[in-house]
Amino acid sequence: MYTQTPIYIIHLSARPGERDVAPLLWHLDYLLKRSRTPDAFCIELFEGIDGKEDFAKGGITAAHTHPILNDFATNLPKRADYLKLMRLALKSVANFQSLGQLGCFASHYLLWQKCVALQKPIIVLEDDVLPAFDFYEKCHLSLEAIRSGQVELVRLFSLYFKGYQIKSTVTHYFDWIFSPYGGMGTQGYILSPQGAQKLLKACPPQWVLPVDNYMDAHYTHHVKTLTLKSYALLVEPAPTQVPHASTQHFRGKLKNLSWLLRLCNYVLKTRLRCYHLFHLLFRRF
């Protein structure tokens, strides 16, 4: 008999003008009371990290203090980490992030730690989603796949890119989707403790890419990730381009590192475009 599976909703309650989370809480509670297992889940608000506000406090977390959050001071990566960051930039779009992006990464990072501490699967939702009427049935289906060892992370939404995407059917209920550019979103997912441990262990020494890009980089963390064929959440389309942090105030080695990462990203994009062109030319053969 499994204990209740926690559903954590990332929300910034302290930010002025932040969206009202009450309709989402009501909708989730309404669906849960009418599901076949109303006692199988518990819903909790998780106070997200506001990167801009936390900047004034000296860093998002004690373990991961980003150079941007220290006013571009001496907290630079070690020389050995430069090569790790460059290898990462050759696999996924990477560069220094804005304070908002860092706060988003930190919020999910802390929930991965909570998942490992609890040693049971958790459900993570952002506060701008709309659950489908069979949301909890899809959650049960995904949890069964996790507990059987078939998968370690399940996306609860369907957000398929028209280009730069590889998609294959795994089972009647799940697809495996790979986008070389990553960034398919973090609006809702179910994560196992084993998957959370892999995400934490492979996390780059500096947060130089958005959290959704990192979670999609399965070749980096090797988390077995599947996506529901039939969505459990309605989400807004992901933006095609999210601005990174401004580098105009960067100095010395930090500025040089930023340019090296951009150069690696340029090589990555050129390679992916060639791959995509080859796929378009020969996909019928």
Task: Describe this structure as you would to a colleague.
With 285 residues, the chain is an alpha/beta fold. The chain has a single domain (5-67, 98-236), classed as Alpha-Beta Complex (Spore Coat Polysaccharide Biosynthesis Protein SpsA, Chain A), CATH 3.90.550.10. Helices cover 39% and strands 15% of the residues. The protein has helices spanning 22-33, 51-55, 79-89, 99-118, 135-147, 193-201, 211-216, 218-221, 252-282; strands at 5-11, 41-47, 122-126, 130-131, 153-155, 166-169, 174-178, 188-191, 225-228, 233-234. The strands form two sheets. It has an eight-stranded mixed beta sheet with strand order 2-1-3-8-5-9-7-6, with helices on both faces. A two-stranded antiparallel sheet has the order 4-10. β6 (166-169) and β7 (174-178) form a beta hairpin. The longest helix is centred in the C-terminal third of the chain and has 31 residues, at 252-282. It starts with a strand and ends with a helix. The model is unreliable at 59-75 (pLDDT under 50).
Short summary:
The protein is an alpha/beta fold and 285 residues long. 39% of the residues lie in helices and 15% in strands.
